Amino acid sequence: MKSQKVVFSMPQETQNIEFKQSWHDEYLKWICGFANAQGGKLVIGVDDAGVAVGVVNAKRLLEDIPNKIVSLLGIVADVNLVRRHGHDTVEIDVAPSNVPISFRGVYHYRSGSTKQELTGTALQQFILRKMGRTWDDIVCERATIEDIDDSAIRYFLRKATEARRIEPLSADASPLTILQDLGLANEDGQLKNAAVLLFGKRPLKFFPCVEFRIGRFGKSDSDLIVQDSIDGNLIQMTDRVMEVLKSKYLYSPIHYEGLQRIEPLEIPEDALREMIFNSIVHKDYTGVHIQLKVYNDRLVLWNEGSLPEGYSVDDLLGEHASRPRNKNIAATFYRAGFIEAWGRGIGKICEGFAKAGLTVPVFESVGGGVRVTAMRPKSFVDSVLKSSGQDSAASANEKRCVNETVNETGNTNGNSGDEPKSWPKSWPKSWPKSWPQSWPKSWPQSTENKVLALLFFCDLARRDIAMKIGTTPTSHSLKLATEKLMRAGYVEYLIPNHPRSRLQKYHLTDEGLNHILRQNAEAKR
């Protein structure tokens, strides 16, 4: 289409406006890029400074350019002759295309004020997006139903049924039937990428970046203290990540309500889970692994995957529609009751932190992905700063456990001495009035009972137990006592899979607590 008009103002070069002094056929690449993005305008006869210099043979260009656009790009654009400050210029208005457009087999894309040539993963994602599909919807050619973990499917069905987001399935439904019902396998029984990621026995075999890495850092990124890498299926990954965080990286301030032991996580657990869910659902699985860095004062979570097209961080913080990168993974997480389908994830995270009296996390678009920075509680940060320069979370946690006490209302208070300021009035009179110099006379003066009494207050490492009862960590009697308590089921390791971990601590089990209560009841008789 062509027409003529006269204008007296000059537009500025922007993301959607490009100036060229004269026409060359290679500028069809720019038209291709505009069509594949949000559309735009190419102005011929204007220099980079925005000064109209005019074009030669404008009328011929009005004939040639539209024909070349149609024949080489397969689209139609408005080509107009515009008179600017006494000079003829040509404006080419390009509308966004809902199908991928190529120029001589190459796909171009307008991003910001630059034109990019799409290749590899970027091209794959672009074509899928134009087709209304996502990467997780592609068939995984190498995978078969033998690569699916039945226990992961059962875990999902249990969660989804509890959340009332699916109807209970027949007990004899096969894994393939279930995956087909979920849209994760096609009619021919071929598994999609999402099926392998969500329920695969070894997703890492097919996708090398299906990992969630956690690192504990000291004063800088070069000061890596300890790290873990969690892989496996996505449907159970959040549980595994939370287990590792609780056992090695975060602390749970202990308090008691009556005789009930309460250990809330330092970071609001529901909000932290939502952060992890979001990072898994929105990750670009053709990119690198998810990273969670734990510092003395903050947690920094990053996943690869740019924001949805047309969205900014501010948009995500406000009311917005849900536009997940991986539609099938998001749909399965929704059915499992893990996430909502209304774009409320970030709002729930912020609400959780605010309700706990913590600073609301900061969300940023960084390095081709999304970064979330969550500050740790000031009480924890202060304890680290006072811990004689010790940077590890475990050191601060141990310091807290050794020194903390419980008051009558169930609040946890710090105390620089070895003894509690006071004991709850509701506790048995036969229990010690100091810790641990004197013990109930009715209790046998055994190492086992001393260990139980100490663990009643908090989880402790062997060296701390030894210090409190006046022996050494390598004491034979202490070794026998802890082994006996563990065999009886009264005490357990906090990190059962790594008994020799330097972060290892002993934990009083429910059976151990019941044993203490039984001993106290017998002492009263």
Commentary on this structure:
By secondary structure, the protein is α+β, with helices and mostly antiparallel strands. The protein folds into 4 domains: 4-132, 2-Layer Sandwich (Methyltransferase, Cobalt-precorrin-4 Transmethylase, Domain 2), CATH 3.30.950; 136-205, no CATH class; 212-379, Heat Shock Protein 90 (2-Layer Sandwich); 428-524, Orthogonal Bundle (Arc Repressor Mutant, subunit A), CATH 1.10.10. Helices cover 34% and strands 18% of the residues. The protein has 17 helices and 20 strands. The chain has helices at residues 28-36, 58-73, 120-130, 150-162, 175-181, 193-199, 237-249, 269-281, 313-317, 327-335, 345-355, 378-385, 393-403, 447-455, 462-469, 476-488, 510-524, and strands at residues 4-7, 17-20, 40-44, 78-84, 87-94, 102-103, 106-111, 114-118, 212-217, 224-230, 255-257, 260-262, 290-294, 298-304, 362-366, 369-375, 405-406, 412-413, 491-493, 506-508. A 6-stranded mixed beta sheet has the order 10-9-13-14-16-15, covered by helices on one side. Strands 1-4-5-3-2 form a 5-stranded mixed beta sheet. β17 (405-406) and β18 form a beta hairpin. α8 runs antiparallel to α11 (345-355) and α14 packs across α16. The longest helix is centred in the N-terminal third of the chain and has 16 residues, at 58-73. The radius of gyration is 32 Å and the shape is elongated. The chain starts with a strand and ends with a helix. Residues 387-440 have low confidence and may be disordered.
